[in-house]
Design a protein that fits this description.
Length: about 250
């Protein structure tokens, strides 16, 4: 065997070993990344979750508004990547309490019963205003004494939250917005930033972010800014004096 042939065999063997090692490292990295996502979303292999959304009030049949449907499609890819299974349920049907399985609750809290119940129980520091008879200030958020009014098409807000009832319970994710386009924007923010959010808040951590969707009439759900991390004030019960003040505003 010539020296040239030996060198070729040694080079080929080294290449094969290098490719195998690279594949093993890549596979291990992919497995760790998938495991982190499964822990963050509470979606181990073969588990089930539920996506709760509005009924489309303009349709005579059970259907989902366009932006909410697109938001659920974004979540469906996450569920599939985690090896889990999803059920879609309307907000006004009887569902079990939260914690037994992961839940994604998407919609307008002034019209979405399930979402409104979650916010009352899990985000007591957030007041969502129903508005007056003319619809003025409908959907306005009040958090820690600050009002966040919607300006349709220009500036709209949405709350993105990951909350749990206890250490062993599955999380509930809330996308509570002032207009349908904001629900989609919140879900896109969650999906795109899931790794950073998991790193910042932990696989079992709770958070509540106030997001601002800017100029949706031109950019749709694409231009999103984080206004603030409102986890502490949102999850803290409003005192009686503040509650009375908020009620006086609504009157």
């Amino acid at each position: 065997m010539t020296d040239t042939l030996q060198d070729l065999i040694a080079s080929a063997a080294a290449l094969i070993v290098g490719l195998a090692a690279g594949w093993a490292v890549h596979s291990a990295f992919a497995r760790r990344k998938r495991a982190r996502e499964q822990r963050f979303f509470g979606l181990p292999d073969g588990s089930e979750c539920v996506m709760v959304t509005h009924r489309d009030s303009t349709s005579a049949h059970w259907s989902i508004p366009r932006h909410d449907a697109l938001a659920l499609l974004g979540l469906a890819s996450v569920v599939e990547n985690c090896g889990a299974h999803a059920e879609v349920a309307p907000h006004d049907t009887g569902l079990q309490g939260f914690g037994a399985r992961t839940e994604f609750c998407v919609g307008d809290p002034t019209a979405h019963r399930r979402l409104a119940a979650h916010m009352t129980n899990l985000l007591p520091g957030v007041t969502v205003h129903a508005g007056d008879d003319s619809g003025t200030d409908r959907g306005m958020f009040t958090i820690a004494g600050t009002d966040y009014r919607p300006d349709p098409g220009a500036v709209e807000h949405v709350l993105l939250a990951r909350l749990t009832a206890g250490d062993d319970s599955r999380p509930v994710f809330l996308a509570a917005g002032q207009r349908p386009v904001t629900h989609r924007a919140a879900v896109r923010h969650l999906v795109r930033n899931r790794t950073r959010l998991a790193r910042k808040y932990g696989a079992q951590g709770s958070f509540c972010l106030l997001l601002k969707v800017v100029n949706s009439q031109a950019y749709g759900p694409d231009l999103v800014e984080v206004v603030a991390d409102v986890t502490k004030p949102a999850t803290t019960s409003v005192g009686p004096r503040a509650a009375a003040k908020t009620a006086a505003k609504d009157d």
